[in-house]
Amino acid sequence: MRAISKRAALVALALSAVSLWATASQARIREGDPEYQDLQGLEQQFQVGPYAPPPGSARLTHPMDIPDIFGPGAVLTVGNVFMKCTNYGLDGNAFPNLSSDPSGQWPGASAVEYLSYIGLAVGAVNPFAQDPTAVRRVSYITEWRPPTLDPEDRMYKSYDGMVGGQRFVNDDGDVAKVAVTQPWINDAPLPGEALIDEDFLDGRDNDGDGLIDEDFGALGQEMWTCLMRDDTPQAINAAAAERHVPLGLECRKSDWAYSIPGYTDFNVINYDIYNVSGHILDSVYVGIRSDLDCGPIVTQGYWTDDFNLSQYPQGVFMIQTAATDLRLQPASDRAPIQGINPDSALCPRYKVSVSGWSTVDDNGDQGKTPGIGTVMLIDHTIDPTGMNGPSKVGLRAFRSFINGTPYQNGGNPTIDQQRYEFMTGFDPSTTTLDPALNHIDPTTGFINQPTGDNKGDYSDWASVGPWLLMPPGAHVSVTIAFGVSLGSFSVMQHYPQDYAAAVSFTAKDTAVMNPLPLMQKYPSLANAIAAQVAFQGAYEVRSTWPHLTDFYGRETPVIAPPGQLLSLGDCHDDGQRTVDDKHYTWFDFDCDYCTGAYSKAKGGLFHHTWLASSPPPSPNTNMSIKYNYAANPDRRFPPEGDRQITLAWDNLSETTPDPKSGQFDFRGYKIWKVSGWQRPVGSAGPGDNDWTLLATYTMFDAHDNNATRCPHDSAAAGVCDFDAQGDSLLYPLIYVPQTGQHIRLRLKRGDMWDAQSGLVLSADSTVHCTGYPSACDTVTGFALGQSTGSPIAHNVYPVGRYHVVDHEVKDGFIYFYAVSAFDSTGSGSQISELESRRSAVEAEGVTPQAAADTISNGAHVWVVPNPYRGNANINSRPSAWDLTPNATDPTGTHIDFFGLPRGAWRIKIFTVSGDLVQTLHWNDPINDSIRSPITVGTTTLPGYNTQEDTPNDGEARWNLISRNGQDVVSGIYLFTVDVNGSVKHRGKFVIIR
User: Fold this and answer.
1) How far apart are CA 411 and CA 217, in angstroms?
2) Could you give the angle at the alpha carbon of 862 between the alpha carbons of 860 and 863, nearest 5°?
3) Whole-number Å distance between alpha carbons of 609 and 536
4) What pTM was estimated for this model as a whole?
5) What is the pLDDT of residues 261-308, one digit of tens each?
6) How far is CA 114 from CA 79, 290, 832, in A?
7) CA atoms within 13 A on the CB side of 588
8) I need a labelling partner for 769 at 20 to 30 A (CA). Which of 200, 513, 535, 914 fits?
9) Which domains does the chain show, CATH number per domain?
10) Rounded Cα gap, residues 947 and 443, in angstroms
């Protein structure tokens, strides 16, 4: 099977279905397209897919190995859009034949896709190239590779508020030591000023202080980061349509998602692109290659009946400034400004520009595909003067086409010359803007390409730029988002006309309008505006920030090159001002008082982008791939037991201050469970509707008004008391329906209880804090309801701080668990509650295991089910634990051997004629197809579980695959159980197909 960058349908339950799946998928990218050749080259390089070694041979790569692209990898799951992130120049699942990860599913693990991939392209002119063919080059998708194949160069997971990852905070106290030498580097710290978020989360010491990832900026409730370069040996030797000539670039890519209401339907992708070539690059453009596909994976060829919505959503709109945003200033708090009405607020509203393009299914697949996938341009580096880069955020060029359309006819550029030509938007023969190349209205800056006449498999190209001179060490940033919202082709195709009519209605300000009426009709517009508002954040007081504007509207700091003086003026200067090389001088180059916000009373205001309250992050659990593996030396709480599952977690949710308020606002935990999951086609894990709430544990001293119930100075008699240590006690009155009576529970400060069941959850006192036996590791923040004064410290505890046991399970069946955390945000009448998302991937599933035989030492082993009946309909099989086959589990079924002893054993399976079919060992991996090696410090451990996962595990499974890699047929099979070289048991079982 060839490399495929599209998801496909698995429609049968046997190995033959995998080949059918491959055949269907191949039609999605044509063999002549460069993307096809790029991905095929990856398969060949890493010996996967059609280039995999024969069964039984050593494997070159395992799932989640470097690169993080094959098998289960980094997936954003906290919002409604489940999207795979990789360190190979693209987001999305490029290898559905090798991985069951979602590409861009919505809502959650729905098995309905809206994304094939979003890829990065960067083009530039190398003025120092000796070879004429190397002057204008583009680094494209798989030509971006991890800097090395070392374990450090992988995907890294974080979240807003993480220790070391607090954004706009000097976590490590570093200061700058080197003067600014490049005027390109806007607002860089001067010597002695704080270095803030300088250490990108990539497993390396970026700032040379001997520490790794000690001061980075994390965003959202889940974030994946990675490094990519275009000049590695792997990138240069990549098999592609033409030889790759690197530009000498490094990309720091960040993908993040939100779990808070209003922000769950989009994921953000940010590219920070650095010039590491050692010389100037000229005319730099950044391209976004997107291929959005809408449809359920179970439907073969679901991507062939889509329509493009090139002009949806886009527009310029007015947004009311939030009351908490300090740029909203009454006249009494500002100096008189020429041209501004003194009776109005300085900035009562601000402009938001939306640029996006979408793809939609033609008819919604009978209600199975109710959404529309959208790519949105959020932000990019600008130069307000327009001298060295774009003066405002906007697209340079765009085109949408059906895959397979020749470049000359408006289709996909296949070589660097064509890619760079398209990204510039210029006709190379006339050096003028070419409408056939860019499809951008020169007046409005919006896409003007109409919706296609025919349905098909649509793809898109877009670009931003240019940045004319990019010195060594300089960088540009481009931020986009991928979102999915409700919508249908029949309605959404009318958006351009509705927007034009609404703009005409606004009379005087024809480019600006109130978005509310259109937002109600067009959910994708509402989603895009929500993303822009989230990015805009708010302006706030931050006296410790190194550089803040010194007057209204001055958004741009300028410093002269070393030894030079500059003379500049802006929109409101009567003359020129002198700029030296020692200090930053601020200018209003964009002529907008809503940027560079300033207050007469508070001075320059800090622009806090991506500002949003957030729920506490979900705690780390013992279900995690990085905890629940057999070789983990710290695994004190293995989840699987005999007819029981132990769910354990740490106190991360309690020790993470809210990134907006800085307060510890944790309130409680919710326990979730999934049973009966059968792995629907294309599903990477349980869907939203699969989860069942088991319990809600609320910390007893968290009251609805955010006050403690029993303050030490005013205990209420008969309700609260204090023990010898001074900890408050609570005796809530609980009604017991079985007895018809009320009883009082005795709770201690820090206990949590489920009001429905009356169950009390207390911390496990035998689990010591991290840092024990020395001082406990702590995290500081403000107490709930406080924002000033002395912060408080909370101790950090590992997995096991809390644990519960679920006895409502059956041995051999797969279950999923999640612990979500919720908070209490606000105060008084403004109370609101935010909750982290429950989610899990297949690799986090757990299976109860029958207890080991400690009496007969393996003399009484039996097979379940026996006989095994492999009916075509999965729901009619007696083995109710069967799952739908997928790329990493081609049978989806297993039979289990019960009654195995402790210690080493071996099971041999034979046909009745004595042919050896398969051999199972006590230490064989059982989930290595969906688990990767785990690196702990400098030690790498196998990240899978083994047949005997714990000493008390007396159950082993077989997936009905022979030692030759074949699916076994109907028949009678014999088996022996060998313990320490001695056969302890002989038995037989029957398979009926």
Assistant:
1) 39
2) 165
3) 5
4) 0.78
5) 889 999 999 999 999 999 999 999 999 999 999 999 888 889 999 999
6) 15, 11, 32
7) 17
8) 200
9) 16-119+251-537 (no CATH), 556-608 (no CATH), 640-844 (no CATH), 862-992 (2.60.40)
10) 66
